[in-house]
Structure formats: structure tokens, C-alpha cells
Prior knowledge:
- It is a single chain.
- The chain is an all-alpha fold.
- The chain has one domain.
- The chain contains six helices and no strands.
- The N and C termini lie far apart (50 Å).
- The model has no long low-confidence stretch (mean pLDDT 93).
Amino acid sequence: MIYVLVTLLVFALMEGITWLTHRYVMHGFLWYLHKDHHQKEEGFFEKNDAFFVIFAVPSWLCIMLGSMNQNYWVVSIGAGIAMYGFAYFVVHEIIIHQRFKLFSRSNNRYIRAIRWAHKMHHKHIDKEHGESFGMLIVAKQYWDKIKRDEKLKAV
């Protein structure tokens, strides 16, 4: 049971780690890898996709080394990172950017709020003056915008 709790705790903490990494690393010294995500270039793959590997390595190492040494709390940390990576992939690549056309557009309020928050992030094409650096937690201002839109539609 403790390993499940560690996995879930790490999954939850990854949102904060992702926010910090996105804000200070991707929009900082590794902007050259993230830039093509804001300023589209030809092709399916982006340099930004390298972050998949960057985040996968600690997950893989924790799972592998934890398993080899029977340190299952370390395996749980790797599993939490991997679970967040999967959630990030589904939300960012499939739902928001629709790089893989698996679902049609949703009218779900959470999906609309998360897509709007990400759209506001992408309105900034340079690394400065960004907003909305998280992925799964949507700030109140974006929820409020979705609620205002719903009220206007109802009129």
C-alpha cells in the first residue's frame, strides 16, 4: 500500500516539477529545444520531443535500479514519473495539439479549460512573457473564461 501512495504522491508532485521545468528550463537555457514547439517548423517531430527522453530517463533508472536492488519505493518513484509522463502525453499530444487524431473535440469543461490555458501559453512565441506553464492543473482565470463563454452561449 505504501508503494501505491508513493507512486500517487510522485504523480501529484510532477505537476509542480513540470511547471518549474517548463518555466525555467524550457523557457530558459533549453529554449533552443523548446522553441520549435512555439514557432512551428516543417515535419511531424520537433526538437521539443527530446523532453520526452529527458523525463523518461529518471523514470526508467528508478524502475530499473529499484527493481535490481529490491528498493520498491524507488520503483514507485519511477512509476509515478512514468504515469505522469503518460498523462502528459495524452493531454498535451492527443487532446491539446491533436498530433494523434484519436479523439474528436470534446465539449467537456475541463478539456476546454485546459485547451484554453495552453492556447494562452502559445500566444507567446518567444521565451519571455509566458503564462500557464503547467499541464494538468488549470488556473482559476481559465476556468472563469470557460464559464463566461458558457453563460454567453446560454443567452
